[in-house]
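User: Is it possible to get a 3D structure for a protein together with its bound compound? The compound here is adenosine-5'-diphosphate. I've pasted both below.
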Amino acid sequence: LITVVGSINMDLVVRAPRFAHPGETITGESFLTVPGGKGANQAVAAQRLGGTVAMIGGVGEDAFGASMAQGLADEGIDVRHVDVRGGRASGVALITVNADGENTIIVVPGANGALTTDDVTLARDVVLSTDVLLLQLEIPMAVVQAAAAIAHDAGRTVILNAAPAAILPDSLLPLVDYLIVNETELFTVAGPAARDQQAAITGLHDRGASAIVVTLGGAGARLVPRDQAPTLVHAYTVDVVDTTAAGDAFVGAFAVALSEGLPPMEALRRGNAAGALTVTRAGAQPSLPTRDEVDAWLSA
Ligand code: ADP
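Assistant: Yes, that's possible. Here is the predicted structure of the complex:
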């Protein structure tokens, strides 16, 4: 079992010729609602890749909330601990894409921001029975910390994808078995003192982090265990269509592999395969691959 404690958002995507100026009204070309949120995306990724996934999170008391919870259930994810927050709006990301493909994004956390440590306590049995706990940073840090503490104390594997990047409390790092970051996130998480990747990683190890996984886009991913030499696992070469959700696919695949008892290097390899397949397709959740697709890719 993989348990995700994390965000559930609806992405509201407008395509327009350009961005509107303050006070101005312009006509856009299209509007799409796409389920997203790093928590939900990684839950969907892991479930499609053959994991058995339970989600702990919150949606608003609105049409988006109902449709997002149903969407997760349709994937086969256990949504018994996806709470409908009375009087709250669902988390949304308001995304405008201009003719050049640039975007502006406003995320309103809504129900995600209203999660409390009580939500984790209520779902304690799920966290205790899980093999892998998977966390990101789109919910309050106190909730991340509480979930990590329960799982860590019970000897479960804790994965933290520190995205969006934030300075991590020192009390959190020792609870995390695998800290997964991309190159930009690594420097934010490590803090301003780190001058290069090595310094950033050493600093995090010194603060109690165990293994650190740095995803490197088209270069693959590097596993840096504590007190052992780092290993680079190369990416697969593909034609890139849209890199959205590559990180979520990587993290989902990594979590599934660990939940099956595979060694970390094999988890990186599977993460790279899932990430590569995702960048060949447009969109977030729609582009996340299935286990059959990843297996076929790896045996090709
Ligand atoms: P994020 O999407 O979080 O910024 P990365 O860009 O590092 O993270 O991508 C995550 C993973 O997706 C990479 O480690 C790699 O496995 C895969 N990936 C991303 N971009 C490419 C690419 N251009 N070609 C092949 N694989 C890629």
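The chain has ten helices and 13 strands. The domain at 2-8+37-85+109-299 is CATH 3.40.1190.20 (UDP-N-acetylmuramoyl-L-alanine:D-glutamate ligase).
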